[in-house]
Automatic annotation (TrEMBL):
GO terms for biological process: proteolysis. This is (rape) hypothetical protein. Residues 144-575 form the Peptidase S8/S53 domain. Keywords: Glycoprotein, Hydrolase, Protease, Serine protease, Signal.
Length: 759
């Protein structure tokens, strides 16, 4: 009996082993098959070797044709040839073909297509961008009438009043772009405001194997924006004046962009709200460089882990070539905060934007039966007031109570930690509840409820006050009033909870974000019946900065993108316009530091006259690439010429940024920076140091004198620590001041590492 049982058991073991082996072999076969299935890859070839775009494309077919066996096969495989701003192509390849191409001596690198994600009336007044002032950046540039802003996003809604061209002169003669007709969009819809509108969907089509059905996805194969994100961003950057703009009565005022007369070129690369493929984005950027834009705005981002700038990031390479052509690239920092090391778009040639609140808030009054009124925040309720009615607590009710109708006609109160506010509101509505009050953690979003009943959101502190009233009152009652707009300064500016934070996870010595701007509750144009809606995100903060950059580019046409970034950073607010310190939402809330907002909140009133700038160009960016450890061959291909990094390898700490960030300080080091005088000849600046806690700083020289023949001066900063243990980052600043006319401030971030975790 025992032997027989043992034999059967062993036979079963053999059967199981054989079965598992077959499954494993099958999995390997499936993986191998999947790896050989064609996918879209982007092949980067660096700087263009020909001025004639046709010759560039021919060279692409030569490379691809040699791999695939013929020019015909190359034309069949290739979906884009990048031939204006840089050289490269996207093609449908197997993984083995991609590997073989990556070994071609002309290729910088090969990357697989990636899906990136999309990351309103009060903003301009809040920042001091006043169109009626007799002086200032807006006045001096005719509101940006000669600037051209490229918006790479989800398209454009040409019928919005924000894109009217009233009072605008001819389109700038340097413009080479076009408007393209398509579904629901006629090229004739463009005007002297909206001067370009194109769309890119070959990457999308290949992903769907040619079966993307636009109508089923509520999309249009044209530049037409069906999502609203691109229209919102474009009108935030450059929207024309529109009086009485509002969202169902809230936030009413005159809508306008940061640069109200700037021209808009829309490049549609995002579809169905979520699908933005890198081959399409690259082709849009390639065309934008050809078309003649002054600034590129991309409210797009990727998630951790980030792509390395040269070896893996399609997007950063295209941005590099744009910057080398003098086009400033402004990008969203991402919406993955408040956790640290979540900031994206971190290449040092990109301006990376964080999001803050501003001095406009929306409160939903909740009046309890004891006549105490508390204010709900973040959620918007647009509807009739729900008068005093019974207030009940969710946790006091059972499922049977709800089914028996005991909540019908009443206001429901609940605490919410992990459930969707919309889901609980929908449930409440289904049970006949007339209103709901939700106590939840703040999220810094301004959005309407979707359940169709009166709703208000409060934080846990106010929630406990309501719960105390409920539990100490025999017949508790409440009423919910419609949301009201409060403008002024009911609370100080904060870095939004969702705004992604530094430090930079790729190169910690490169400070990111660079700058912050309002990105919460921004009212701007959308393609809906109401015309204007609130949106929140670093996506909304980015075009605020983009518009300011466009004005600055028109005011200072000889400034490089790095000089513009420096001016933004060194003139920024560290307090809000009312003088209150800027806080950073998170757990816990704290005073904002450089990893929250870079240099601070953008200050357009000072940005055109910073006094000094920390400029960067070709040599400084190559310094960064060498210090980051990229290979000579990769850098050479990117630059389009042979380059050998110096030995010893230069320090990343010496990249000429308007900031100093030291991730690993154990012994004394010396850091170098160079400043360029863009103010009066004869200016004299003295150093003012606010050292980080426990950090010693010595600046040499302590005085900078810019005589008639002195445009640039290099200075050094000796940095040492008094800490005897590993610390977190401590923060300070270095300011060059000429007796107050200019205060050129850069942030300092220093972390002591007695024992380095990187060996």
């Amino acid at each position: 009996m025992g032997l027989s049982s043992l034999t059967v058991s062993n036979n079963r073991k053999h059967i199981v082993v054989v079965f598992i082996s077959l499954v494993f072999i099958l999995k390997i076969a499936l993986i191998s098959c999947a790896n050989q299935e064609s996918q879209i890859y982007t092949v980067h070839l660096g700087k263009r070797q020909h001025d004639d775009p046709k010759l560039v494309t021919d060279s692409h077919h030569d490379i691809l044709g040699s791999l695939l066996g013929s020019k015909e096969a190359s034309r069949e495989s290739m979906i884009y040839s990048y031939r204006h701003g840089f050289s490269g192509f996207s093609a449908k390849l197997t993984s083995s073909q991609a590997r073989e191409l990556s070994e071609n001596p002309h290729v910088v690198h090969v990357t697989r297509s990636k899906n990136m994600k999309l990351t309103t009336t009060r903003v301009s007044d809040y920042l001091g961008l006043t169109s009626t002032a007799p002086t200032g950046l807006v006045h001096d540039t005719d509101m940006g009438s000669d600037a051209i802003i490229g918006i790479v996003d989800s398209g454009i809604w040409p019928g919005s009043k924000s894109f009217n061209d009233n009072g605008l002169g001819p389109i700038p003669a340097r413009w080479k772009g076009q408007c393209v007709s398509g579904e629901g969009f006629n090229a004739s819809m463009c005007n002297r405001k909206l001067i370009g509108a194109t769309y890119y969907a070959k990457g999308l089509a290949r992903k769907y194997k040619g079966a993307f059905k636009a109508a089923e996805k509520d999309e249009a194969m044209s530049p037409l924006d069906k999502v609203g994100h691109g229209t919102h961003c474009a009108s935030t950057a450059a929207g024309s004046f529109v009086q009485n703009a509002n969202y169902l009565g809230l936030g009413q005022g005159t809508a306008r962009g940061s640069a109200p007369r700037a021209r808009v070129a829309a490049y549609k690369v995002c579809w169905n709200n979520e699908e933005c493929f890198t081959p399409d984005i690259l082709k849009a950027m390639d065309h934008a460089m050809r078309d003649g834009v002054d600034v590129l705005s991309l409210s797009l981002g990727s998630e951790i882990p980030l792509d390395f700038e040269v070896d893996r990031s399609d997007f950063a390479i295209a941005a590099f070539h744009a910057v080398m052509k003098g086009i400033t690239v402004v990008c969203a920092g991402g919406n993955d905060g408040p956790e640290t090391q979540t900031i994206s778009n971190v290449a040092p040639w990109i301006i990376t934007v964080a999001a803050t609140t501003m001095d406009r808030e929306f409160f939903t009054p909740i009046t309890l039966g004891n006549n105490v009124t508390v204010l709900g925040q973040e959620g918007l309720y647009i509807g009739e007031e729900v008068g005093f009615t019974d207030l009940i607590y969710f946790d006091d009710l059972t499922k049977a109570d709800f089914e028996a109708g005991k909540a019908k006609g009443k206001i429901l109160f609940t605490f919410l930690t992990d459930r969707s506010t919309d889901q609980i509101a929908e449930f409440a509505k289904s049970k006949g509840v007339v209103g709901i009050i939700i106590a939840t953690k703040p999220i810094d979003l301004i959005e309407p409820g979707t359940a169709g009943i009166a709703s208000a959101r409060v934080d846990y502190e106010i929630g406990m006050d309501i719960l105390l009233y409920l539990q100490t009152t025999k017949f508790p009652k409440a009423k919910i009033s419609p949301t009201k707009t409060f403008v002024g300064r009911p609370s100080a500016t904060k870095v939004a909870r969702f705004s992604s934070r530094g430090p930079n996870s790729i190169s910690p010595a490169i400070l990111k974000p660079d700058i912050a701007a309002p990105g919460v509750g921004i009212l701007a144009a959308v393609p809906t019946g109401v015309g204007y809606e609130f949106m929140s995100g670093t996506s909304m903060a980015t075009p605020v900065v983009t518009g300011i950059v466009a004005l600055l580019k028109q005011k200072r046409p000889d400034w490089s993108p790095a000089a513009i970034r420096s001016a933004l950073v060194t003139t920024a607010f560290q307090t809000d316009p009312s003088g209150e310190p800027i806080a950073a939402e998170g757990s816990p809330r704290k005073i904002a530091d450089p990893f929250d907002y870079g240099g601070g909140l953008v200050n357009p009133g000072k940005v055109a006259d910073p006094g000094l700038v920390y400029d960067m160009g070709h040599d400084e960016y190559v310094h960064y690439l060498c210090s980051a450890g990229y290979e000579d061959i990769s850098i050479s291909k990117l630059l389009g010429k042979v380059y050998t990094c110096p030995s010893p390898t230069p320090s990343m700490l010496d990249v000429n940024l308007p900031s100093i960030t030291i991730p690993y300080l154990s012994q004394e080091i010396t850091i170098t920076r160079t400043v360029t005088n863009v103010g009066p000849v004869g200016s004299v600046y003295k150093a003012v140091i606010e050292p980080p806690l426990g950090i010693n700083l010595q600046v040499s020289p302590k005085t900078l004198e810019f005589g008639p023949n002195t445009k640039k001066i290099t200075f050094t900063v000796k940095v040492s620590t008094t800490h005897r243990v590993n610390t977190d980052y401590h923060f300070g600043s270095l300011t060059w001041t000429d007796n107050g006319a200019h205060n050129v401030r850069i942030p300092l971030s220093v972390r002591t590492r007695v024992m380095n975790f990187k060996i």
